[in-house]
Amino acid sequence: MRRNKLARRSLLTGAAGVSAASILHWPADAAEFSWKFGTVLPITHPMIARIAEAAPKIKEATGGRFEYAVYPSSALGGDTALMAQTISGALQMYSLAGDILAPREPAAGIMGVGFAFPGYGPNWAAMDGELGLWYRGMAEKHGLFALEKAFDHGFRNITTRNKPINTPDDLRGFKIRLPVAPTLIALFKSLGASPTALNFGEVYSALQTGIVDGQENPLQLIDEAKLYEVQKYLSMTGHVWTGLHCSFNLAAWNKLPTDIQDTIGHNMTEAATLQRADWIRITDDVARSLKDHGMVINTPNVEPFREVARKNGFYTEIKKRMGDDVWALLEKYTGPLA
């Protein structure tokens, strides 16, 4: 689990002591409710580290009645499979991102509209406000209960094998891996790129074999997945911000006693609050790590990218796809986009 990374990020001292064995193994005295949390993220991701840290607190606070084991690094499957398992009830807990739900519900990708948020502030106002309330209600319609406080997954940036991305022209015909996320795919198509949709577990090999020439992700995942071994350039486009919710199979959640629900909610709210601060503090550290590994970092002006997307009808098309009501909620926090 690369515990050296946890040592480097000493701010996560509480989670740093969580070993793979303690996460993946069930204790002898099984609880009344013994659940599994599945994610594609590594245990060293700040969200998963904080969720693992919260597990013994929740078990103790519920008198041993509720426990969960964390299965990181796609141990139970890719994002698409994990979400389907959680909806069906085969899995009880999952790190939900709206763009992964978007193939089932297009409007779920609303937070992933390209270049909507220029930085931190408006994104949290939206996610903690009316847009987040709408999003969680929509997730329930698909059998997922999302806790109110989202975790930070950061702004996404582009990595490439043979050239930096400085202008929209650099993306013309560019073979880029994207998650199975319709809004993100539409954004890069509007910028002239040639996207290939793959689950995260397939990214490294796709880059290594040349199936794609680049990809985009938050800095943390670029570092954790060692993409610097197969990518040379890192372009800080910050084109999309992603929040992650600790989510549950709705039927399983509704069967929990109210006091256990409240305990989970309280501890996960605390975990999310701490993790948001974690993410900000480690950003510079991760950027330095990537540079030390030989990546060449540039920060392009994103306004030309936004204008090309607008000119090519991206915002108009996404507004039509998502509906006027939810689009109005987004623009309440971003200002006019379409």
In CATH terms, the superfamily of the largest domain is: Bacterial extracellular solute-binding protein, family 7
What is the CATH C-level name of the largest domain?
A: Alpha Beta
Low-confidence stretches: 1-17
Spatial extent as radius of gyration? 19 Å
Q: Strand tally, please?
A: 12
* Beta-strand residue percentage: 15-25%
How would a crystallographer describe the biggest sheet?
6 strands, mixed
Distance from N terminus to C terminus (CA atoms, Å) equals 43 Å
Q: Could you characterize the architecture of this molecule?
A:
- Strands 1, 2, 3, 4, 5 and 11 form a 6-stranded mixed beta sheet that branches. A 6-stranded mixed beta sheet has the order 8-7-9-6-10-12, sandwiched between helices.
- It starts with a helix and ends with a helix.
- By secondary structure, the protein is α/β, with parallel strands linked by helices.
- It has 2 domains: 3-153 and 243-282, D-Maltodextrin-Binding Protein, domain 2 (3-Layer(aba) Sandwich); 157-239 and 294-334, D-Maltodextrin-Binding Protein, domain 2.
- Strand 7, helix 9 (182-190) and strand 8 (194-197) form a beta-alpha-beta unit.
- It contains 16 helices and 12 strands.
- Helix 4 (46-61) packs antiparallel against helix 13 (258-292).
- The longest helix has 35 residues, at 258-292.
Topology:
Blueprint: H1 3-8, H2 13-16, H3 20-24, E1 33-38, H4 46-61, E2 66-71, H5 79-88, E3 93-97, H6 98-101, H7 122-127, H8 130-141, E4 144-146, E5 151-155, E6 157-160, E7 175-178, H9 182-190, E8 194-197, H10 203-209, E9 214-217, H11 219-224, E10 233-235, E11 241-249, H12 250-255, H13 258-292, E12 296-298, H14 303-311, H15 314-322, H16 324-334
Parallel strand pairs: 1-2, 1-3, 7-8, 7-9, 10-12
Antiparallel strand pairs: 3-11, 4-11, 5-11, 6-9, 6-10
Helix pairs in contact: 4-13
